[in-house]
Write a structure and sequence with these properties.
The protein has seven helices and ten strands. The chain has 242 residues and is of the alpha/beta class. The structure holds 2-amino-2-deoxy-6-O-phosphono-alpha-D-glucopyranose. The site of 2-amino-2-deoxy-6-O-phosphono-alpha-D-glucopyranose has 14 residues, from helix 5. It catalyses: alpha-D-glucosamine 6-phosphate + H2O = beta-D-fructose 6-phosphate + NH4(+).
Length: 242
Amino acid sequence: MEVVITSGAEESARLAADAIEQLLGRKPDAVLGLATGSTPLPTYDELVRRQEAGRISFSRARGFTLDEYIGLPADHPQRYRNVIDRELVGRVDFAPDAVTGPDGLAEDLQAAAAAYERAIAEAGGVDLQILGIGTNGHIAFNEPGSSLASRTRVQPLAPQTRSDNARFFDGDVEAVPRLCFTQGLGTIMEARHLVLIATGEGKAKAVQQLVEGAVSASWPATIMQHHPHATVLLDGAAASLL
Ligand code: GLP
């Protein structure tokens, strides 16, 4: 794992965008793994600037999101499909339908999870996966206790995650869904390059485990230690316990 301590969120965003720019430069039809949450937003802003400057194009690229709340109405602003459209996809030149996510309104949830796995495989797998990390060490929504070999599935959200994410639901923890779809740790580990970004002191404990802890389902992100090409971009506060 390559661990880079940056001067802050802006430099982390530039480095993550550099990796995507280089990938699209050599493989314009690359498959990108896109994350939601607040951490990747500066990276997405940087990608929009680079596309506007003519440095990159997403016109032949494809994308898969990491996870999705189950049961939020189609037009809910916090549905991850809508979040990623608002924050990145609708601001750059992705082709229509080039980016997909698990269907949080599917009638048959197990079938939807299996269909999502198949769609990723049929696209040839993910070339570069952007990741954030939860304060409890989750990646995507793989909560502590997730199998290190898990695949896309339905997962109950940990109380810590619901409380962390209440800020996106006007502070109302009861409004945060209880169930989600998440790509599994085994699914994420098949991406050819993982780029995890963490900013702020709130992530310091999870980052300490990620970088220095034993690989364990108690801190799901630690599985990244076994990935042959993983980059971890940290600001000083997130790196403060290393
Ligand atoms: C969320 C998402 C994750 C994200 C993480 C951290 O619940 N499911 O994909 O990486 O928690 O979010 P944030 O970047 O807002 O701190």
